[in-house]
Specification:
Arc Repressor Mutant, subunit A, 3 domains, alpha+beta, Alpha-Beta Plaits, two-stranded antiparallel sheet, PucR_C-HTH_dom, 5-stranded mixed sheet, about 10% strand, PucR-like_N, PucR-like helix-turn-helix protein, about 450 residues, PucR_C-HTH_sf
Length: about 450
């Protein structure tokens, strides 16, 4: 594996500023890259005219877009080829570029940040009978043509030698990354033709996480071919982001990294340490892969575990779980329950928070934050004060305002349950503590009045 050091974080704003200069030039260079590959490598001349040519053009377009978008992102990009053991995990179902390719007027599916198209290119290269050397030559030509254009832009725009060096490093790193993904696809296709277990593992995970419930006898037969004996339980793991196998996953792991919702299926239960290792094993590029962990279930219910993991991962989008964290479904079951019917929880919030409608937005937010802490602390003023970082007297003032709004509902068991459900359905950003001075001033005024 190779890491290209682009420069210190201080250079990030400089590179971000180059996007507007570089983008129009590189977006225009795709046709030039295709023409040069066609001229330099005779084996590709016929490929560009058929359905497979659409995928090649999409691969070029994606590489250019990704290079531009990554300008100004974290400065180290790690790319490289996985260990040979890594390719024993299945790639999962992929569309065959040699078959029904999308029309030139349709929207091309860009899967897993577009990396999937490079995996498919690698698979098709084997079917076309070309060697890995030919495939890598095509990637090198693409980099050479793109770099030639950047050199011209750099001279015209007065880029410094340091900036040009960083651009070169980033371009080489991206070529390593994407050509390695294509290599994965090539090896996967080769393994399918030579290793019956590889193909069986691919079919097995499709069957386990698919919509159709498979008979246990059929699963056991396929599991034996896949050398994945059916365990008592299995755990689904949902992934999000640019994924590819960069380290061995282990024989107990089935993987489907294709499509828009890649996933893993692990025999047995998983520990936090195991999940961290799997996350590193499927991460490529500067961004960490998002991970949701489902429940340990019988293999016949593996699809439920994967669906639960995907729903848990979706809580990140709703702001209910911080970005970058592994989301364990069993730790967020109340949130998942509340998110099964967004319209229902929205109506619940509207009804329960109606007494707050006359408040300013800021006052309303503070009241809800206090309510959340008060429910968690079971009414303890000192516990609420510690949670919100406030003086206990300020909390007493807030609680009085809260009691004025909600009245006896705060002491009715059913109403308290509804209030807690409504609060838990809110994003974390709406529950962040607010210890602003004006609140303390109100409390001081209240204390003065009491005296």
């Amino acid at each position: 594996m190779r890491a290209h050091r682009v420069g210190p974080p201080a250079d990030t704003p400089v590179l971000q500023g180059l996007r507007g200069i570089v983008r129009p030039e590189l977006e225009d260079v795709a046709g030039e890259i295709i023409a040069e590959i066609r001229a330099a490598i005779p084996e590709y001349r016929g490929s560009f005219d058929g359905p497979y040519g659409i995928w090649i053009r999409e691969g070029v377009r994606h590489a250019i877009t990704l290079f531009i978008d990554r300008l100004g992102e974290p400065s180290t990009v790690t790319a490289g080829r996985p260990d040979s053991a890594a390719i024993t995990a299945p790639a999962g179902p992929v569309a065959d570029p040699a078959g029904a390719a999308p029309s030139s007027t349709s929207t091309m599916p860009v899967l897993n940040d577009g990396h999937e198209v490079h995996r498919r290119i690698g698979r098709q290269e084997l079917r076309e009978g070309r060697s890995l050397d030919t495939l890598q030559s095509a990637y090198r030509i693409g980099v050479r043509v793109a770099w030639r254009r950047i050199m011209r832009v750099g001279r015209q725009s007065g880029f410094s030698s340091a900036v040009m060096s960083q651009l070169a490093d980033r371009m080489l790193a991206l070529m390593d990354e994407l050509s390695s993904v294509a290599l994965d696809g090539y090896r996967e296709a080769k393994a399918e033709t030579s290793d019956p277990a590889f193909a069986a593992r691919r079919r097995l995970i499709r069957l386990l996480v698919g919509r159709r419930a498979a008979p246990r006898g059929e699963l056991a037969e396929l599991a034996a071919l896949a050398r994945w004996p059916l365990p008592d339980t299995a755990t689904g793991i949902a992934l999000r982001g640019p994924v590819r196998i960069v380290a061995p996953l282990g024989d107990e792991v089935l993987a489907d990294l294709s499509g828009t919702a890649p996933c893993l299926l692990v025999a047995g239960t998983v520990t936090e340490e195991r999940v961290r290792a799997l996350r590193e094993a499927v991460s490529c590029g500067p961004q960490r892969v998002g991970v949701g962990v489902g429940a340990a279930v019988e293999p016949v219910a593996a699809a439920d575990s994967v669906r639960l993991a995907r729903r848990a991962l979706a809580l990140v989008d709703d702001g209910l779980v911080p970005q970058g964290e592994v989301v364990w479904s069993e730790r967020v079951l109340p949130e998942l329950l509340l998110r099964t019917g967004d319209a229902v929880t929205a109506q619940l919030r509207r009804r329960l928070f109606a007494p707050l409608e006359g408040m300013t937005e800021r006052r309303r937010a503070r009241t809800i934050q206090t309510l959340s802490a008060w429910l968690d602390a079971q009414g303890s003023v000192h516990a609420v004060a510690e949670r919100l970082g406030l003086h206990p007297q300020t909390v007493r003032y807030r609680v009085r305002r809260m009691e004025e709004a909600f009245g006896e509902r705060l002491h009715d068991p059913r109403a308290r349950f509804e209030l807690e459900a409504a609060v838990r359905s809110l994003p974390d950003s709406e529950l962040a503590p607010d210890s602003s001075d004006d609140d303390n001033a109100d409390a001081e005024s209240c204390r003065s009045g009491e005296r």
